[in-house]
Amino acid sequence: MGGYGDIQLLREDGLRLDGRKVDEMREVVIEAGVLPAADGSAWVKHGLNIAVCAVYGPMEAHPRKIQRQDRAVIDVRYNMAPFSTSDRIRPGFNRRSREISKVTAEALESVVLVERYPRSKIRVEIEILAAEAGTRCVGLTAAAVALADAGIPMRDMIVGVAAGKVEDTVVLDLDKAEDNYGQADLPMGILPTTGEIAFLQMDGDLSVEEYNTCLEYNMKAAKEIHAIQIDALKRRYEQKMGGGV
Amino acid sequence: MVALVPSLLRQELANLAAQDQRIDGRAQFEARELTLETDCLYNAEGSAKVTWGDTIIYAGVKFEMRTPWPDRPAQGSLMCSAELRPIAGRKYEPGPPSPESIELSRVVDRGIRESNCIDMDKLCIIPGEKVLGVMIDIHVLSDQGNIFDACALGAIAALRTAIVPAERFDIGEDYPLTVSMTPTMASFTRVGGRYVLDANEEEELGGDERIHITLGDEGHLHSLQKGLRGTLTPAEFAEILEVAQSRCAELAELVNSKEA
Fold first, then answer.
1. Which residues 6+ apart lie within 8 Å of B244 measured at CB?
2. Where are the domains of chain A?
3. Which residues of A touch B41 (CB under 8 A)?
4. Which terminus in chain B has less CB density within 10 A, N or C?
5. CB B142 to CB A50 under 8 A?
6. Could you report the predicted ipTM of this complex, rounded to two decimals?
């Protein structure tokens, strides 16, 4: 969090720079089954962010040292395309993408019924094609849809959402300016049916009250995005069945 | 399994070729349907998405301000890089760039570079101090055969629609990049003993060597590459070159129709 005070992020009328209300999220569009080579896939546009996710597997887990006798392991790679940000990113893994990959995998392992596939591996490949703040959340939302599209059993979906604080005001779903110059960011991976939290990070400065408002906003957004996820999967399913129900 | 399936597939492909047929019903020199979208990625200065049969790639152009190479103080630079990331298919593994992805990058790069469609002198801002570097990055999302042609098409389409972000570099107003030509690629794979245009995934698995031909305006050759084990005769090359002439002209027309 930059915390620069000289950039105005809220307008006189209380709306945000892009005209959203404080508890309004950016537009979310989801398509399931977009990559023919993959076992399951999803495309998510969230504001100006674009994430594509492919799922391969379950397959044999190798190298063997990663195998678990009692369950499947989920191998996540979160990667930002070189052209996804305003300054080109050098290709290859960095510390940021490794950390995000790790916590994303652990979040997905909390909803996928991994014990059904002992000694196997499920590959989840997340590519960020365009980034405008909140890519880890968009990647998580995409991964859940891709896993469902691959027919992998899960006890719930996961939705990635973030709330934060700008100019001492709690706002839902930070955009680029708010992310760069705001005071706090609280990304969460939420199980929309049970309200459990499978992914949690935060940086910045929040009071307990502010945290509670963030949580409330995130829960509300999770329900909305969940409906869009389900709609994408239904459309995909109808296509597979040859149209119509 | 691994040894058995390709040998069965090879036999099937050979039987089909003997009857002048292909595994997906296409004619010998018929390409799959393709769609080209441009200007589809926020943050890229030029972008393209190519859906070529079931193969999907994205290409994005970025610019950077850099100091020139000491031996070319008044010239900018061009770099084209294709990444075969593990999202592209089951067979792709994480790790440093494979020889296959390096070959893909370099073949696509040569086709664009050698056509001289970008005037490197025009990318010079202050001789000896500041030049523009043009970077084309290609992301393969779904490999279902013939990624070479798809990547080459996406790269030139992204380049031809790119806007130089001059304001961001404090060198005046944004302007479209000048690209004087539209080099495109046609690739042939030997399947069942004969060359076919635009091999799909199965044909690549059960086929032999491949030939990549990049042609510019007026059908001039700018890059050739033979990949994988196998040989060809001059007569065979003459035949596929003729097919490439009409195919590349078609693709160039498609790219040129996308210009803003």
1. B186, B188, B213, B215
2. 28-239
3. 50, 83-84, 129-130
4. N
5. no
6. 0.84
